[in-house]
Amino acid sequence: MKHSPKPGNVLPWLLIAATLTTASAKTVWLDELDVSRTQQGWGQPRVNRSVDGNPLRIAGRAFATQRGRIEFKLPGDGPLLWTSGKLTSGQPAGAVEVNLDGVQHLVLAVTDAGDGINYDHADWAEARIEFSGGDPIAAALPTEEPVILTPPAPPTPRINGARVVGCRPGRPFLFMIPATGNRPMTFRADGLPSGLRLDPATGLITGEVAERGEFGVTLQASNALGQTQRSLKIVCGDTLALTPPMGWNSWNCFAHDVSAERVRAAADAMVSSGLIQHGWTYINIDDFWEQNPQAMEKDPSLGGPGRDEQG
Predict the structure, then answer these.
(1) CA 210 to each of CA 150, 166, 168, 192, 238: distance values in angstroms, whole numbers, following the listed order
(2) Distances from the Cα of 239 to the Cαs of 13, 164, 167, 192, in angstroms?
(3) Is the pTM of this model over 0.70?
(4) What's the pLDDT at 192?
(5) Residue 166 phi/psi, 5° resolution?
(6) In this structure, what DSSP letter does residue 288 have?
C-alpha cells in the first residue's frame, strides 16, 4: 500500500471483511471496493480522486503548508497491525506492506494525530490486498444510535430566545417570537414601536422602526393549556446581534459542495425539528458557494457572488 498526506481535513475509516493472506493468487484493489461506506470527517469519499475531486498526485508535488498532521493506521481484528507515525503535508509517499495472514477484519484508518482535523487530507494510493477464499468486501462500521437527552418541551406555552434585539432605523425588521408548546398558539406583543406589526397566528413581527431608541415590549403566548409572557427590548441604532444569534453553518457538512437545494433543506430542517421555537434564527451560506455559482443560480433569492448571505 502507498499513502500520501495532503492539506485539508478528511479522516477516512474503511472496514474490510474477508479471509486474507499474503500467500495467495487473488488480488483486489482498493478502488474496486465500495468506498462509499467510508466514514470521514469532511466531504465525500471518492474513487481515484482527492476529496476535492482532483486526480491523485503524490510524487513530484510539493506542498507549501506544513499545517496538516495525520497518522495512518491498520487495525486488524482489533490489534494494530501497522502505523505510519505522525506525518505532515509535504512528506513524500511511503510504501506499506503488511502481513494479513488470518486477518478477518481490516480497517484502513487515518487519525488527526491529536491536533484536530484542520488541513488533514489523506489518500490511500495503489492499495491492494492479496487474499485467498471469498472476495473481500467493504463492510459498514458499527454505528451508535443517536439519543436525545434534552427533556421535551412542556405542552404549555413557553417563550424562548433573545431578550434583546437590535435593528437599524428604516431597515426591515424580522423577529419571530420563539415559543414551544402545543399548537395552535396565539401571540400578542404590547408596546411595539411605531412601524412594527405582529401576526398573532405565527408570532412573526415585521416592519420598520423609524426612530432610534430603546423600546420595551411585552410578549405573550397562549394555547388551550395556558399562557405565558416575557419582556423583549428592541434597540434601534447602529448595532446588531445584541444577543448572540444561534444558527447553523454548512461548512462542516457540505464544505465546497454548497447548493440552493441543500441550503433550503437545512432551513426546512430547522423549522421541522422545532429549533426555531427555541430561538434558532439563521442558516448561514458558507462563502465557498462563490466558487460554485452554478449550484446557486437556480435560486436567485439566495444572492450572488460577493454577498455574505444569511436567511
Answers:
(1) 41, 13, 8, 12, 13
(2) 46, 12, 7, 19
(3) no
(4) 98
(5) -100, 150
(6) G
CA atoms within 13 A on the CB side of 271: 9
CB atoms within 10 A of CB 301: 9
d(CA 44, CA 52): 9
End-to-end Cα spacing for the chain: 46
User: Omega before 136 cis (within 30°)?
Assistant: no
- Name the residue with higher pLDDT: 64 or 52: 52
Q: What percentage of residues in the chain have a pLDDT greater than 70?
A: 82
- Residue with grid cell 486477518, as numbered in its chain: 103
3 state SS of 289: helix
15 grid coordinates: 472496514
DSSP strand pairing (26-29 vs 179-180): unpaired
The span from the CA of 253 to the CA of 263, in Å, is 11
pLDDT of residue 302: 47
Cell numbers at residue 260, please? 440552493
From CA 309, how far away is CA 282, in angstroms rounded? 10
